[in-house]
Amino acid sequence: MTGLNNLIRTFFDLEEMVNVFPTLITVGLRNTLVLAVFAMLFAVVFGLLLSLLLVSRNIAVRAPAFLYVDVFRGLPAILTIYLVGQGLPIAGIAPFGRSPYPYAVVAIGIIQAAYLGEIFRSGIQSLDRSQMLAARSVGMTHHQAMWLIIVPQAVRNVLPATMNQFIIIVKETSLVYLLGLFPLQRELFSIAQDHAANTGNLSSLVAAGIIYCIITVPLTHLVNYVDKRLREGPKLVAAETAEA
Amino acid sequence: MAVSDPILSRDAVAGRDGVAGAGYAIEVRHLFKNFGQQVVLRDVSLAQRRGEVVCLIGASGCGKSTLLRCINGLEQPTSGTVLINGLDLASPKTNIDAVRSRVGMVFQSFNLFQHLSVLDNVSIALRHVRKLPRAQAEEIARKKLAQVGLTGKERSRPAQLSGGQQQRVAIARSLAMDPEIMLFDEATSALDPELVKGILAIMRELAESGMTMVVVTHEMRFAREVSDRVCFLDKGVIVEEGSPARIFDDPQSTRLRNFLAQVL
Ligand SMILES: Nc1ncnc2c1ncn2[C@@H]1O[C@H](COP(=O)(O)OP(=O)(O)OP(=O)(O)O)[C@@H](O)[C@H]1O
Ligand SMILES: [Mg+2]
């Protein structure tokens, strides 16, 4: 019985959870989401550019892009975050000043751009070559065909995988704790971690875990829904033509 | 008949910029095309006057599609020259995209832009290549869709249309660009038999309106009735060419006789 009590007190101490909860929500959740959204934006924009390089017919353009993807998918995230987040300012490359926050965004963005670039590349290449031929046949330049015809369709193809990557980013933001965030910059994990270190009780981490799950689990189901929907085609529009 | 439609009238076709004075609408000179080791086109030459309708016939894999794609520069010749209205497609002075925007192409598998509505399929190039304002582009698109019998389908997605309807959209998409030349690559081959007729009727109307056309087809009746000239392609070589009567009633080579025996 003491064993079970011990277990409950270590992980599920309600008082500890209630104590940390306001900070988790007002500071932690906010920062986790802000970090994740900005890292995602960075990764989407950069990943899109990367994917265009990856499908280039010119090997001199393609090769560095492939190298980038291989390297940043090959490294542990924690190492890249450390190198970028701590390393850049130390090396004198400090466009964002001393605040670790933007470096965290850039670090995660750099990593995730590699994954998204590869996802977008496969989305582009899974498109039939005939779409490009048709676009060029009405006089579009390669550039126009890419942005008006290929990329929008590729985005649809890769939407589920991209949303999945956002879920991964939400979790990955926890790694920025090692950059030493200012108190108000802390995200869910670092708040819970600090609290646990101060109290010697891990319940705050469990509380943070619950919040992570409240974000990620519904998102996962949303991804599955979108995936299914995109594969089965739009229902509303189908009904509209049936009437016509 | 669409002859009364000013956009399709012969004057409109012949009187446009860059056309006047040039000798031939299409001129192909000693065209070779290799894919790796494989020689797909071998010394192909072809000269086509404005308003002329040429049908390309030949067995599967003989290089018909490749020849069409060379004619609008979607494929680069290994050697030889392609001139459109006297403009050398390989010349650095030629704006190939501009040329292509005046050479319509209709594909066997329609190749509609799957993510766009029917109206956007037809108007997107007007907006982004011709740089027309949206309203004007859509007005032209609606006209072209009406011309191919698709009024009321503007909001549909390609995937919701029958093959015949999709091919009509594809034709409207090309016609919207006010082309001087239309290339058809087995436009009816992927269609159910009952849908073929409608597409052939549109093509026939276009031909009668004076459009310069190159038509790759397995519809021998269409070739005989509509074309001014038929080219028989075999293993990348134009083996015979001439009037439909000459090709179909008086074939000279064994290869053409064998081919006709198979398809007729
Ligand atoms: N992009 C390509 N890469 C390699 N080989 C190709 C390519 N396009 C065509 N070929 C080859 O060139 C040959 C001619 O192809 P093409 O499509 O021009 O024939 P076709 O006469 O249009 O045949 P079909 O009636 O089946 O459409 C074929 O052997 C084909 O395999
Ligand atoms: Mg073909």
Protein traits:
heterodimer, A: 244 residues, mainly alpha, MetI-like fold, 10 helices, disordered C terminus, B: 264 residues, alpha/beta, 6-stranded mixed sheet, 4-stranded antiparallel sheet, 10 strands, 23% strand, disordered N terminus, binds adenosine-5'-triphosphate, binds magnesium ion
Give an account of the 3D structure.
The complex is a heterodimer of chains A (244) and B (264). By secondary structure, chain A is an all-alpha fold. In chain A, helix 4 crosses helix 5 (100-125) and helix 7 runs antiparallel to helix 9. Chain A is elongated. The termini of chain A are far apart. Chain A has a single domain (2-243), classed as MetI-like fold (Orthogonal Bundle), CATH 1.10.3720. Chain A has ten helices and no strands. Chain B has 264 residues and is an alpha/beta fold. In chain B, 36% of the residues lie in helices and 23% in strands. Chain B has ten helices and ten strands. In chain B, strand 7 (181-185), helix 7 and strand 8 form a beta-alpha-beta unit. Chains A and B meet through helix 6, helix 7 and helix 10 of A and helix 3, strand 6, helix 4 and helix 6 of B. Bound molecules: adenosine-5'-triphosphate and magnesium ion. The site of magnesium ion (MG) has 4 residues of chain B, from helix 2. Magnesium ion binds next to helix 2 of chain B.
